[in-house]
UniProtKB/TrEMBL annotation:
Source species: Lithospermum erythrorhizon (Purple gromwell)
Pfam families in the record: DUF538
Protein name per its UniProtKB record: Transmembrane protein
Coiled coil: none
Amino acid sequence: MSTTHKITSIAFSFFLILLSTTLQIILTIKTPTAYQVLQSYNFPIGLLPQGTTGYDLDQETGNFNAYFKGPCSFSLEDSYELKYSSKISGTIQKDKLMNLSGISVKVVLVWLNIVEVKRDGDNLQFSVGITSADFPIDNFYECPHCGCGLDCNEFENRDKNRGDSLVSSS
């Protein structure tokens, strides 16, 4: 084998090793979750219920979409009912979510769209356009579950007890 072939062979082997290493690094870099993205903009993860199936975000404009398997609804503190569509969208920037669509809250007997969320220190301000309400941020450190909100232990225990009684009656 000539010297030129040996150098070419060594260079090609080096290239393959470098390519393989680069691909391994790329494959091990994980895309942040929708919840991690929220945190990077100074929001708590509990603004989204558990179960996002994906999201897309335009880093330049802040436009985003978040996806769920289907619509999601739950109650919080036995006084607020919330609904999330299977796709929610809006624009995100530090301490501000705006132009929101796909999230609504029941106020008295009427469903209103939440159009904006602002962080002001330790409070979150939710706007439905005509009015807004402030809530302590620590209410949003935990993600609610579709169907049962934050009271899932009580919900799961009730279902478990129902299941146990059905099993014991056979």
